[in-house]
Design brief:
By secondary structure, the protein is of the alpha+beta class. It has 13 helices and 10 strands. The strands form 4 sheets. It has a 3-stranded antiparallel beta sheet. A 3-stranded antiparallel beta sheet has the order 8-9-10, with no helix packed on it. Helix 3 packs parallel to helix 10, helix 9 packs across helix 10 and helix 10 packs across helix 12. It is globular. It starts with 5 loop residues before the first helix and ends with a strand.
Length: 318
Amino acid sequence: MGYKTDVFNACSKSRSFTARISADRCFSLILPNGESLNLIAPTSESRKEWANVIQHIIGKGQQEDRETRMEKWLRKQFKQADTSGDGFLNFDECMLLLDHLNLHFSKEQAAEIFKKAGTVTRRQASGEALELPHQQEVLNAEGFRRFYALLSERGDLQKIFTEFAEGDHQTWTTKTLQKFLREVQHEEDQTLEACEFIIKSFEPMDENQSQNLLGLAGFRNYLLNQRQFLFHYKNRQVFHNMTHPLKDYFIASSHNTYLTSNQLTGVSSVEAYISCLLTGCRCVECKVRIIEKNLLFLITSKKVNKSNTKVHLFKIKT
């Protein structure tokens, strides 16, 4: 909004431009390639309307893209985990899948989630009178989706949602959402109209949308939306002065990123990378050991940025 892009900033230096076009009529779209589309609305009110509609469209598109990618990913995981190829997952196959995804659950915890997902016996699923072990409990594709949903359940969001929900209601009104945004998010300027717009943008159930109600799924969609990230979306493009020598810059780096604890007894896990990146680290270390012809190659690589990985190769005789 305003004279914030390079184009508008250059135009704002002209008195004739600022006299004719006020900053509250200007807005810009930052495209994926980093270029900007600079627009001027007839009035400040129409600029707000345009901005709201565009944000709504972007939010809807991001939500649909996320759901489509998740659906494809789930189908792929189900197919890979179905080692028997019969269209069902038994408990052992689910345990192998958890191990493949680096999700650490005890057998008792996994069994409880497996049951909650709504298992059926192969006999029930096929409608045939099958003998054991074909009567064992299994998950079909829909059951697997519920299984994954239970695995990825966000208890922290459920707790917040329940605290603000009035009585036994499973939804928030616009006033409840406004209270949350003002008291918890400290967005004091949020109006009831803005809350209605949020519900229409992120609530997946048409019935709730028609009544201006926000369910847990819509609440989760809103908080996981790109615009709620601590890292400001405008800063995805390079905005600092990058002309200084490399020694003038700081970067959060990590050593032995793959370890979950100490270097001697720590377990290597993908979760260590996830935890590291979530805490703000932007330089991680990977090590790959390849044994070939009685030689041990130790490869140490560090990710410098999206397009540049610094790799060190050491050759050690065995």
